[in-house]
Specification:
By secondary structure, this protein is mainly α. The protein contains 7 helices and 2 strands. Helix 1 crosses helix 5 (111-128). The relative contact order is 0.12.
Length: 178
């Protein structure tokens, strides 16, 4: 499972599972065994077919990550082959899957890695709602440049330095109360 591991709507997950979804080198959300556990857990909740699994993972990640069919269907094939899930009757042409007793035992034996994988999905959903601090970094850089330039001007004496410091402290207090 190397190369392009996520579908057209899926996004990579990076910076030790806590950071940027934009630009830069990106890592995977799950390794193969973690995806197997997540899929198995979702099937344990209710019988599902591949597309439902993709949409459920996307929903739980807040729309940030959707595994591709190229990840889900081979995972389902493997879980079926090793007896952790079984095919069940479903409406329509799609194959639906149910967990087996062996699958339940496998989940029970792997609760810690499953919890970690599910927590990672929750972190994705939370990260989606965080505001981008780039405008703040730009404003702080601008303030720094202005202060350095002002401090180098003739006539920027101690009185003006104290006045500038007081203004900055007032703004800091206002922001702190937000």
């Amino acid at each position: 499972m190397h190369g392009r591991d996520f579908g057209p709507r899926g996004r990579h997950f990076g910076r030790e599972h806590g950071g940027s979804f934009r630009g830069g080198r990106r890592g995977r959300v799950f390794d193969a065994s973690e995806l197997q556990l997540v899929v198995l857990d979702l099937i344990a909740e209710q019988n599902r077919h591949g597309y439902e699994l993709i949409r459920e993972i996307e929903s739980r990640s807040g729309g940030v990550y959707a595994p591709s069919p190229g990840m889900i269907y081979p995972t389902l094939s493997l879980l079926l082959e090793i007896g952790l899930i079984e095919e069940v009757e479903a409406e329509g042409a799609r194959k639906s899957f149910a967990i087996t007793e062996a699958g339940r035992a496998h989940l029970a034996d792997n609760q810690e890695p499953l919890k970690a994988a599910l927590a990672r999905i929750a972190v994705l959903a939370e990260a989606k709602d965080r505001a981008d601090p780039a405008p703040l970094r730009r404003a702080m850089g601008n303030l720094r440049q202005v202060l350095v330039a002002a401090a180098g001007k003739p006539g920027f004496d101690e009185k003006k330095i104290l006045q500038a410091a007081r203004l900055i402290d007032e703004v800091a207090g206002t922001i702190e109360r937000m």
